[in-house]
Write a structure and sequence with these properties.
Blueprint lengths: L22 E4 L4 E4 L2 E2 H7 L2 H9 L7 H21 L12 H10 L8 H23 L13 H10 L5 H13 L7 H11 L4 H13 L7 H11 L5 H10 L17 H15 L7 H18 L9 H11 L7 H23 L16
Helix pairs in contact: 1-7, 1-12, 2-3, 2-15, 3-5, 4-5, 4-9, 5-6, 5-15, 7-12, 7-14, 7-15, 8-9, 8-15, 9-15, 10-14, 11-13, 12-14
The protein binds acetyl coenzyme *A (ACO).
Protein backbone atom coordinates (compact mmCIF):
# COMPACT_ATOMS: atom_id res chain seq x y z
CA UNK A 1 0.00 0.00 0.00
CA UNK A 2 1.41 3.41 -0.88
CA UNK A 3 1.29 6.31 1.60
CA UNK A 4 -1.72 8.50 0.83
CA UNK A 5 -1.93 10.49 4.06
CA UNK A 6 -0.28 13.91 3.77
CA UNK A 7 -0.60 15.38 7.28
CA UNK A 8 1.56 13.81 10.00
CA UNK A 9 -0.02 12.54 13.22
CA UNK A 10 2.99 12.72 15.52
CA UNK A 11 1.08 11.56 18.59
CA UNK A 12 -1.06 9.10 16.56
CA UNK A 13 -4.13 10.79 18.13
CA UNK A 14 -7.26 8.98 17.08
CA UNK A 15 -5.40 6.57 14.77
CA UNK A 16 -6.94 3.08 15.02
CA UNK A 17 -4.20 0.46 15.00
CA UNK A 18 -6.02 -2.66 16.20
CA UNK A 19 -9.28 -4.37 16.94
CA UNK A 20 -9.17 -5.70 20.47
CA UNK A 21 -11.26 -7.92 22.71
CA UNK A 22 -9.35 -6.78 25.78
CA UNK A 23 -10.51 -3.31 26.82
CA UNK A 24 -12.51 -0.30 25.67
CA UNK A 25 -11.68 3.26 26.74
CA UNK A 26 -14.48 5.78 26.15
CA UNK A 27 -12.84 9.13 26.72
CA UNK A 28 -16.00 11.20 26.27
CA UNK A 29 -18.18 9.24 28.70
CA UNK A 30 -15.35 8.34 31.07
CA UNK A 31 -16.00 4.63 30.84
CA UNK A 32 -13.51 1.75 30.89
CA UNK A 33 -14.51 -1.81 30.08
CA UNK A 34 -12.01 -4.62 30.71
CA UNK A 35 -12.84 -8.00 29.19
CA UNK A 36 -16.56 -7.16 29.10
CA UNK A 37 -16.76 -5.78 32.64
CA UNK A 38 -16.99 -2.20 33.87
CA UNK A 39 -13.70 -1.44 35.59
CA UNK A 40 -15.41 -0.56 38.87
CA UNK A 41 -17.35 -3.82 39.15
CA UNK A 42 -14.33 -5.85 38.13
CA UNK A 43 -11.75 -4.10 40.29
CA UNK A 44 -13.82 -3.93 43.46
CA UNK A 45 -14.75 -7.62 43.28
CA UNK A 46 -12.04 -9.53 41.41
CA UNK A 47 -8.52 -10.45 42.44
CA UNK A 48 -5.35 -10.32 40.34
CA UNK A 49 -5.56 -14.01 39.37
CA UNK A 50 -9.06 -13.39 37.96
CA UNK A 51 -7.91 -10.74 35.51
CA UNK A 52 -5.00 -12.95 34.38
CA UNK A 53 -7.50 -15.71 33.55
CA UNK A 54 -9.94 -13.22 32.00
CA UNK A 55 -7.42 -11.63 29.63
CA UNK A 56 -5.27 -14.68 28.82
CA UNK A 57 -7.67 -17.59 28.81
CA UNK A 58 -10.66 -16.99 26.60
CA UNK A 59 -12.36 -13.89 28.00
CA UNK A 60 -14.26 -15.41 30.94
CA UNK A 61 -13.81 -14.90 34.66
CA UNK A 62 -12.44 -18.11 36.20
CA UNK A 63 -14.31 -20.60 38.37
CA UNK A 64 -12.98 -21.08 41.91
CA UNK A 65 -10.94 -24.08 40.73
CA UNK A 66 -9.51 -22.13 37.77
CA UNK A 67 -8.62 -19.20 40.04
CA UNK A 68 -6.81 -21.58 42.40
CA UNK A 69 -4.97 -23.13 39.48
CA UNK A 70 -3.84 -19.67 38.27
CA UNK A 71 -2.80 -18.80 41.83
CA UNK A 72 -0.62 -21.92 42.02
CA UNK A 73 0.92 -21.30 38.58
CA UNK A 74 1.85 -17.75 39.54
CA UNK A 75 3.21 -18.87 42.92
CA UNK A 76 5.46 -21.52 41.31
CA UNK A 77 6.66 -18.94 38.78
CA UNK A 78 7.43 -16.48 41.60
CA UNK A 79 9.68 -19.13 43.14
CA UNK A 80 11.47 -19.65 39.79
CA UNK A 81 11.92 -15.88 39.38
CA UNK A 82 13.26 -15.55 42.92
CA UNK A 83 15.77 -18.33 42.23
CA UNK A 84 17.07 -16.29 39.27
CA UNK A 85 17.89 -13.25 41.39
CA UNK A 86 21.30 -14.71 42.25
CA UNK A 87 22.06 -14.98 38.52
CA UNK A 88 21.14 -11.50 37.33
CA UNK A 89 24.24 -9.73 38.58
CA UNK A 90 23.81 -6.04 39.32
CA UNK A 91 20.53 -5.67 37.41
CA UNK A 92 18.70 -4.86 40.65
CA UNK A 93 21.31 -2.37 41.84
CA UNK A 94 19.94 0.60 39.91
CA UNK A 95 18.87 3.61 41.93
CA UNK A 96 15.59 3.84 40.03
CA UNK A 97 13.09 0.99 40.38
CA UNK A 98 12.01 1.11 36.73
CA UNK A 99 15.64 0.89 35.58
CA UNK A 100 16.05 -2.16 37.81
CA UNK A 101 12.83 -3.72 36.51
CA UNK A 102 13.84 -3.16 32.88
CA UNK A 103 17.34 -4.54 33.47
CA UNK A 104 16.17 -7.59 35.43
CA UNK A 105 13.39 -8.58 33.01
CA UNK A 106 15.89 -8.09 30.15
CA UNK A 107 17.95 -10.86 31.76
CA UNK A 108 15.24 -13.42 31.05
CA UNK A 109 15.74 -15.44 27.90
CA UNK A 110 13.13 -16.29 25.32
CA UNK A 111 11.61 -19.68 26.10
CA UNK A 112 9.88 -22.35 24.13
CA UNK A 113 7.24 -22.67 26.86
CA UNK A 114 3.68 -22.37 25.69
CA UNK A 115 2.52 -18.77 25.40
CA UNK A 116 0.35 -18.62 28.53
CA UNK A 117 3.04 -20.33 30.65
CA UNK A 118 5.45 -17.66 29.38
CA UNK A 119 2.99 -14.92 30.39
CA UNK A 120 2.79 -16.45 33.88
CA UNK A 121 6.61 -16.55 34.05
CA UNK A 122 6.94 -12.88 33.04
CA UNK A 123 4.11 -11.66 35.27
CA UNK A 124 5.61 -13.43 38.28
CA UNK A 125 9.08 -12.10 37.43
CA UNK A 126 7.91 -8.48 37.30
CA UNK A 127 6.43 -8.74 40.83
CA UNK A 128 9.41 -10.63 42.29
CA UNK A 129 12.03 -8.31 40.75
CA UNK A 130 10.12 -5.15 41.75
CA UNK A 131 9.79 -6.36 45.35
CA UNK A 132 13.43 -7.53 45.48
CA UNK A 133 14.63 -4.15 44.16
CA UNK A 134 12.61 -2.39 46.85
CA UNK A 135 14.20 -4.50 49.57
CA UNK A 136 17.71 -4.09 48.17
CA UNK A 137 17.24 -0.33 47.83
CA UNK A 138 16.34 -0.25 51.53
CA UNK A 139 19.52 -2.20 52.35
CA UNK A 140 17.66 -5.44 53.13
CA UNK A 141 17.81 -8.92 51.63
CA UNK A 142 15.06 -9.91 49.17
CA UNK A 143 12.28 -12.01 50.70
CA UNK A 144 11.48 -15.40 49.15
CA UNK A 145 7.93 -15.97 47.90
CA UNK A 146 5.33 -17.78 50.02
CA UNK A 147 3.68 -20.25 47.68
CA UNK A 148 0.51 -20.44 49.77
CA UNK A 149 -0.36 -16.78 49.13
CA UNK A 150 -2.19 -14.93 46.38
CA UNK A 151 -0.07 -12.86 44.00
CA UNK A 152 -1.10 -9.51 45.55
CA UNK A 153 -0.60 -10.73 49.11
CA UNK A 154 2.82 -12.15 48.33
CA UNK A 155 3.88 -9.02 46.45
CA UNK A 156 2.89 -6.93 49.48
CA UNK A 157 4.82 -9.25 51.83
CA UNK A 158 7.93 -9.50 49.61
CA UNK A 159 8.05 -5.72 49.03
CA UNK A 160 7.34 -4.48 52.55
CA UNK A 161 8.61 -7.32 54.72
CA UNK A 162 5.37 -7.01 56.70
CA UNK A 163 2.82 -9.68 57.56
CA UNK A 164 -0.09 -9.89 55.13
CA UNK A 165 -2.81 -7.40 56.01
CA UNK A 166 -6.19 -8.28 54.45
CA UNK A 167 -7.43 -4.69 53.98
CA UNK A 168 -4.22 -3.49 52.33
CA UNK A 169 -3.98 -6.57 50.11
CA UNK A 170 -7.61 -6.08 49.04
CA UNK A 171 -6.74 -2.51 48.02
CA UNK A 172 -3.68 -3.76 46.16
CA UNK A 173 -5.77 -6.34 44.29
CA UNK A 174 -8.21 -3.55 43.34
CA UNK A 175 -5.33 -1.39 42.12
CA UNK A 176 -3.67 -4.18 40.09
CA UNK A 177 -6.97 -5.13 38.41
CA UNK A 178 -7.78 -1.46 37.74
CA UNK A 179 -4.54 -0.91 35.80
CA UNK A 180 -4.38 -4.35 34.16
CA UNK A 181 -5.34 -3.07 30.73
CA UNK A 182 -6.22 0.24 29.11
CA UNK A 183 -6.62 0.25 25.34
CA UNK A 184 -3.70 1.25 23.15
CA UNK A 185 -1.66 3.13 25.75
CA UNK A 186 2.02 3.83 25.01
CA UNK A 187 3.52 0.82 26.80
CA UNK A 188 0.93 -1.59 25.39
CA UNK A 189 1.53 -0.27 21.89
CA UNK A 190 5.27 -0.72 22.48
CA UNK A 191 4.70 -4.35 23.52
CA UNK A 192 2.62 -4.92 20.38
CA UNK A 193 5.21 -3.29 18.08
CA UNK A 194 7.92 -5.61 19.42
CA UNK A 195 5.61 -8.65 19.20
CA UNK A 196 4.76 -7.69 15.61
CA UNK A 197 8.39 -8.31 14.60
CA UNK A 198 7.94 -11.95 15.74
CA UNK A 199 10.25 -11.29 18.68
CA UNK A 200 9.73 -13.02 22.04
CA UNK A 201 7.51 -11.99 24.95
CA UNK A 202 10.39 -11.12 27.32
CA UNK A 203 11.65 -8.61 24.73
CA UNK A 204 8.16 -7.10 24.38
CA UNK A 205 7.76 -6.74 28.14
CA UNK A 206 11.24 -5.26 28.56
CA UNK A 207 10.46 -2.61 25.94
CA UNK A 208 7.05 -1.91 27.49
CA UNK A 209 8.67 -1.29 30.88
CA UNK A 210 10.85 1.35 29.20
CA UNK A 211 7.75 3.07 27.81
CA UNK A 212 5.90 2.88 31.13
CA UNK A 213 8.73 4.60 32.98
CA UNK A 214 8.17 8.04 31.46
CA UNK A 215 6.35 10.68 33.54
CA UNK A 216 3.83 11.23 30.75
CA UNK A 217 2.75 7.60 31.25
CA UNK A 218 3.48 5.49 34.36
CA UNK A 219 6.08 7.66 36.03
CA UNK A 220 3.65 10.15 37.55
CA UNK A 221 2.39 8.66 40.86
CA UNK A 222 5.61 9.16 42.87
CA UNK A 223 5.72 12.84 41.79
CA UNK A 224 1.98 13.14 42.70
CA UNK A 225 2.85 12.19 46.27
CA UNK A 226 5.78 14.63 46.23
CA UNK A 227 3.32 17.30 45.11
CA UNK A 228 0.87 16.49 47.93
CA UNK A 229 3.74 16.68 50.42
CA UNK A 230 4.93 20.01 48.98
CA UNK A 231 1.40 21.47 49.20
CA UNK A 232 0.96 20.14 52.72
CA UNK A 233 -2.47 21.65 53.53
CA UNK A 234 -5.61 22.18 51.42
CA UNK A 235 -5.40 25.96 51.86
CA UNK A 236 -1.97 26.00 50.12
CA UNK A 237 -3.20 24.15 47.04
CA UNK A 238 -4.38 26.96 44.75
CA UNK A 239 -1.29 29.13 45.18
CA UNK A 240 1.12 26.23 44.72
CA UNK A 241 -0.66 24.83 41.66
CA UNK A 242 -1.08 28.19 39.99
CA UNK A 243 2.67 28.84 40.33
CA UNK A 244 3.38 25.46 38.72
CA UNK A 245 1.16 26.13 35.72
CA UNK A 246 2.56 29.67 35.36
CA UNK A 247 6.07 28.17 35.35
CA UNK A 248 4.86 25.94 32.46
CA UNK A 249 5.23 22.77 34.52
CA UNK A 250 2.59 20.06 34.31
CA UNK A 251 0.50 19.07 37.29
CA UNK A 252 1.20 15.40 37.77
CA UNK A 253 -1.84 13.14 37.82
CA UNK A 254 -3.93 15.59 35.77
CA UNK A 255 -4.84 15.33 32.09
CA UNK A 256 -5.14 12.41 29.71
CA UNK A 257 -4.84 11.89 25.98
CA UNK A 258 -8.14 9.98 25.74
CA UNK A 259 -10.25 11.05 28.74
CA UNK A 260 -11.90 14.43 28.35
CA UNK A 261 -13.68 13.86 31.67
CA UNK A 262 -12.42 12.42 34.94
CA UNK A 263 -10.61 9.09 34.49
CA UNK A 264 -13.05 6.42 35.80
CA UNK A 265 -10.14 4.64 37.47
CA UNK A 266 -9.70 7.61 39.83
CA UNK A 267 -13.16 6.89 41.31
CA UNK A 268 -12.39 3.17 41.68
CA UNK A 269 -9.19 3.91 43.55
CA UNK A 270 -10.97 6.44 45.78
CA UNK A 271 -13.41 3.66 46.69
CA UNK A 272 -10.53 1.31 47.45
CA UNK A 273 -9.10 3.93 49.80
CA UNK A 274 -12.49 4.43 51.51
CA UNK A 275 -12.78 0.66 51.92
CA UNK A 276 -9.35 0.53 53.56
CA UNK A 277 -10.37 3.36 55.88
CA UNK A 278 -13.54 1.48 56.88
CA UNK A 279 -11.37 -1.53 57.70
CA UNK A 280 -9.36 0.67 60.08
CA UNK A 281 -6.36 1.63 57.91
CA UNK A 282 -5.47 5.27 58.50
CA UNK A 283 -5.09 7.20 55.24
CA UNK A 284 -4.27 10.77 56.08
CA UNK A 285 -3.81 12.01 52.49
CA UNK A 286 -7.29 11.40 51.01
CA UNK A 287 -8.83 14.72 52.12
CA UNK A 288 -5.77 16.65 50.92
CA UNK A 289 -5.79 14.83 47.56
CA UNK A 290 -9.46 15.69 47.02
CA UNK A 291 -8.82 19.37 47.80
CA UNK A 292 -5.79 19.45 45.48
CA UNK A 293 -7.75 17.78 42.67
CA UNK A 294 -10.55 20.36 43.02
CA UNK A 295 -8.10 23.27 42.98
CA UNK A 296 -6.16 21.82 40.03
CA UNK A 297 -9.34 21.38 37.98
CA UNK A 298 -10.35 24.97 38.62
CA UNK A 299 -6.91 26.37 37.72
CA UNK A 300 -6.54 24.24 34.59
CA UNK A 301 -10.07 25.22 33.46
CA UNK A 302 -9.05 28.86 33.81
CA UNK A 303 -5.47 28.66 32.46
CA UNK A 304 -6.00 26.03 29.75
CA UNK A 305 -9.55 26.79 28.57
CA UNK A 306 -9.04 24.93 25.27
CA UNK A 307 -8.31 21.63 27.01
CA UNK A 308 -10.38 19.47 29.30
CA UNK A 309 -7.97 18.40 32.05
CA UNK A 310 -9.11 16.22 34.95
CA UNK A 311 -7.60 13.72 37.37
CA UNK A 312 -6.13 10.61 35.78
CA UNK A 313 -5.47 7.21 37.35
CA UNK A 314 -2.08 8.29 38.68
CA UNK A 315 -3.55 10.92 40.99
CA UNK A 316 -5.26 8.41 43.31
CA UNK A 317 -2.67 5.69 42.61
CA UNK A 318 -0.36 7.77 44.75
CA UNK A 319 -2.86 7.87 47.61
CA UNK A 320 -3.96 4.23 47.45
CA UNK A 321 -0.46 2.75 47.20
CA UNK A 322 0.81 5.04 49.94
CA UNK A 323 -2.06 4.01 52.21
CA UNK A 324 -1.44 0.37 51.34
CA UNK A 325 2.06 0.81 52.75
CA UNK A 326 4.24 0.80 49.62
CA UNK A 327 7.07 3.34 49.36
CA UNK A 328 6.67 5.97 46.60
CA UNK A 329 9.74 4.70 44.76
CA UNK A 330 7.81 1.48 44.16
CA UNK A 331 4.68 3.10 42.68
CA UNK A 332 5.76 2.95 39.01
CA UNK A 333 7.15 -0.61 39.29
CA UNK A 334 3.83 -1.60 40.92
CA UNK A 335 2.02 -0.16 37.91
CA UNK A 336 4.13 -2.61 35.88
CA UNK A 337 3.14 -5.47 38.21
CA UNK A 338 -0.49 -4.86 37.17
CA UNK A 339 -0.06 -3.75 33.54
CA UNK A 340 2.10 -6.73 32.54
CA UNK A 341 -1.16 -8.72 32.37
CA UNK A 342 -2.46 -6.44 29.61
CA UNK A 343 0.89 -6.32 27.79
CA UNK A 344 0.91 -10.12 27.61
CA UNK A 345 -2.71 -10.28 26.44
CA UNK A 346 -1.96 -7.73 23.69
CA UNK A 347 1.15 -9.68 22.64
CA UNK A 348 -1.07 -12.74 22.14
CA UNK A 349 -3.70 -10.70 20.34
CA UNK A 350 -1.17 -9.15 17.97
CA UNK A 351 0.49 -12.50 17.28
CA UNK A 352 -2.88 -13.78 16.09
CA UNK A 353 -3.00 -10.84 13.63
CA UNK A 354 0.58 -11.56 12.62
CA UNK A 355 1.28 -8.31 10.77
CA UNK A 356 4.44 -6.24 11.23
CA UNK A 357 3.62 -2.77 12.63
CA UNK A 358 5.50 -0.40 10.36
CA UNK A 359 4.08 3.12 9.93
CA UNK A 360 5.49 5.70 7.53
CA UNK A 361 7.31 8.99 7.96
CA UNK A 362 7.59 12.00 5.69
CA UNK A 363 11.12 13.02 4.72
CA UNK A 364 11.64 16.78 5.13
CA UNK A 365 15.46 16.78 4.95
CA UNK A 366 17.70 17.94 2.12
CA UNK A 367 17.73 16.09 -1.20
CA UNK A 368 21.04 15.03 -2.78
CA UNK A 369 22.33 17.72 -5.11
N1 LIG B 1 -0.80 20.20 33.76
C1 LIG B 1 -0.75 21.39 33.08
N2 LIG B 1 -1.02 21.46 31.77
C2 LIG B 1 -1.33 20.34 31.12
C3 LIG B 1 -1.41 19.10 31.76
C4 LIG B 1 -1.12 19.07 33.14
N3 LIG B 1 -1.16 17.93 33.81
N4 LIG B 1 -1.75 18.15 30.86
C5 LIG B 1 -1.87 18.78 29.69
N5 LIG B 1 -1.63 20.10 29.84
C6 LIG B 1 -1.69 21.13 28.81
C7 LIG B 1 -0.42 21.18 27.99
O1 LIG B 1 0.54 22.03 28.54
C8 LIG B 1 -0.94 21.71 26.68
O2 LIG B 1 -1.18 23.09 26.81
P1 LIG B 1 -0.87 24.12 25.59
O3 LIG B 1 -1.77 23.69 24.47
O4 LIG B 1 -1.22 25.45 26.18
O5 LIG B 1 0.58 23.96 25.27
C9 LIG B 1 -2.31 21.04 26.57
O6 LIG B 1 -2.73 20.78 27.91
C10 LIG B 1 -2.31 19.76 25.76
O7 LIG B 1 -1.24 18.95 26.20
P2 LIG B 1 -0.71 17.71 25.37
O8 LIG B 1 0.64 17.35 25.89
O9 LIG B 1 -0.84 17.93 23.90
O10 LIG B 1 -1.78 16.62 25.74
P3 LIG B 1 -1.56 15.06 25.71
O11 LIG B 1 -2.82 14.45 25.31
O12 LIG B 1 -0.36 14.68 24.94
O13 LIG B 1 -1.24 14.82 27.27
C11 LIG B 1 -0.67 13.75 29.24
C12 LIG B 1 -1.63 13.79 28.04
C13 LIG B 1 0.73 13.43 28.72
C14 LIG B 1 -1.11 12.67 30.21
C15 LIG B 1 -0.67 15.14 29.94
O14 LIG B 1 -1.97 15.48 30.36
C16 LIG B 1 0.32 15.22 31.10
O15 LIG B 1 1.50 15.48 30.87
N6 LIG B 1 -0.16 15.00 32.36
C17 LIG B 1 0.72 15.05 33.51
C18 LIG B 1 1.51 13.75 33.67
C19 LIG B 1 0.62 12.59 34.08
O16 LIG B 1 -0.29 12.72 34.88
N7 LIG B 1 0.95 11.42 33.51
C20 LIG B 1 0.14 10.20 33.74
C21 LIG B 1 -0.81 9.97 32.61
S1 LIG B 1 -1.97 8.67 32.93
C22 LIG B 1 -1.21 7.28 32.41
O17 LIG B 1 -0.47 7.21 31.46
C23 LIG B 1 -1.44 6.06 33.16
Amino acid sequence: MSVTQTATASGLDGVLVAETLLSEVDGEKGRLIIGGHDVETLALNAVFEDVCALLWKGGKLPTDAERESMRKELAAARKAAFDRIAKIGDALDHEDGMDALRASVAHLSATDKDQTADFVRLTAAVAVFAAAWCRKAAGCAPIAPDLTLSHAADYYRMATGKAVDAARVRALDTYLVTVSDHGMNASTFTARVVASTASDSASSVTAAIGALKGPLHGGAPGPVLDMLDAIGKPENASKWLEAEVDAKRRIMGMGHRIYKVRDPRAAVLEKAIERMEKAGVKTDRLALARAVEKAAEEILRRKKPDHSLHANVEFYTAVVLDAAGLPRTLFSPTFGVGRVVGWCAHIAEHRAVGRLIRPASKYVGPMPS
